């Protein structure tokens, strides 16, 4: 049965991916607008289970790259990302059979649908982060041996760069430099791969999980938390749990080298009264500590919700005085292997913590 | 008659190009070492008059890019620049018939000979700056309509970037960003062009002029100034003139965005006693003013010589207390058209001056 993604599904994916995006991944509103516009113009997009891919299918992931605080001011048309996919095809002399997100969060969960609609391609129901992460080497593709290059970086003026390296950390380093020079936001196609590589390395089902999370949130009449619990319980992720409730008393942010670094402090309410949670972030939430002790860290998901509406709040929208609930979701096993923790465990982000998976049930 | 460049000619070109390099272009010692090593290993290189090129010959210029103060610490092997030429060939599916310098100064006058020796190619006796300039759009190639891209930027780790843009200013901007990320020094092949385009846009004879200047300096027994005058008198440049003599009393330098910015102050001696000359530079010397009035500006050449030996002193070797003579050489007409002055006249570097060509005779 072919699964189609239309305008309503884009709304749901954008909302659900904001939970999986753990505060980052760029403004979901931007990706949503761009994807909806493309689908309205070119029609709905097929969502393809990775199992349906042929081993030698050619899959080219597409994404926006840059600091979320910038992308709000610099709206893309969707053609920029098509340009980076076109450039990879020209480089490799091969036509893409599908595109795919490199992360599941904010703008990059919906952006590939804009590319797919414009190019008449399906989107693979999978990604390489299972959440949002700030850098291009933060990919199961990288962890499990796929080369990130050739990668194309393009901008809205028609400039493109093709990067080649045998070190995916260098891909991140060079592409980030180019992105900063392109005005802080660019469009990237990287980790071009075969259907077999997608099946071996991608985190499956994350787009449909985002869609289901978004739909559940949209339909939830009173308890958003219950809706999120129910959807996650049936996924390869752990069941969502509430980590903390309180009021934001401090937010620190700085944009540096194309990233947004900072932390938010939350004074506890009700059951958490008397305690303070600090969440540190680099684009995405990295670690949550209560009174100095970590209760959740990367790669597990830490998402801040509006305490009244249950809506997820991206890091750039965290404001003093907001009443919030902090959610934790354990990531699937493919994201928690020793090889994976080397790339995106707490220490790789400079956190003085050892990763301990969130228990399934509170 | 085929003109060959061997180890001795590389010595002369490196020395002569330091005069034409107006203080910049990178450490000539580095380019010399790399070129000599390649010629010793692979044999001498043919220096090809632009007139000998066929209209559809494929010429790929090669250069080092980066801040001169860095290149002294990071010695290239010569293979890095070959990598960028190879990458352009692969990109365009065409094999180079010759390489060529993009500037005549410091490292970049000799570096293409290392590439040429390793690849068995001739070097065209011409360049696109007629001197050294700090940026990639500072090229007669750009001024007279050649696209700078596709351009390849490579580093010593085997990373490469192919840049494509229809704006040569963007080429500079993006390649500079990549160069900074590659550690401050990279190897670039840009402005790939036909033999016809070389004939129409390059400044001819600059490699043989550098060689003749270097040889004259090497053989000059007492008066280096006389030797330089004699060689320049017979060139398409104006005859060299002495602008100032004095003692360095201040040098200010800062490395920013991959460039070395600064100025040197020289207190006059003998005929110039009581006056002070300030030379402003961005990698290369840009303008020389005596007591606040410009006496020479870009694109004309301003070169600082050791007052005793007559040897040219690059900006990174200017030291407090050194006794120096400042030389001025008017550039050829192709470098002084209104189109050229738009790109590299004094105002394009932020100098509050109007370009006035140095008179031929003092």
Automatic annotation (TrEMBL), chains A, B:
Q: Name one Pfam family in it.
A: S-Me-THD_C
SUPFAM superfamilies in the record: CV3147-like
Has the keyword ATP-binding been applied to this entry? no
S-Me-THD N-terminal domain segment(s): 9-164
The domain of life is: Archaea
- Enumerate the InterPro entries for this protein: S-Me-THD-like_C, S-Me-THD_C_sf, S-Me-THD_N, S-Me-THD_N_sf
**Which keywords annotate this record?**
Plasmid
Signal peptide, first to last residue:
none
Q: Which residues form the S-Me-THD-like C-terminal domain?
A: 167-358
Q: What is this protein called?
A: DUF917 domain-containing protein
Taxonomic placement: Archaea, Methanobacteriati, Methanobacteriota, Stenosarchaea group, Halobacteria
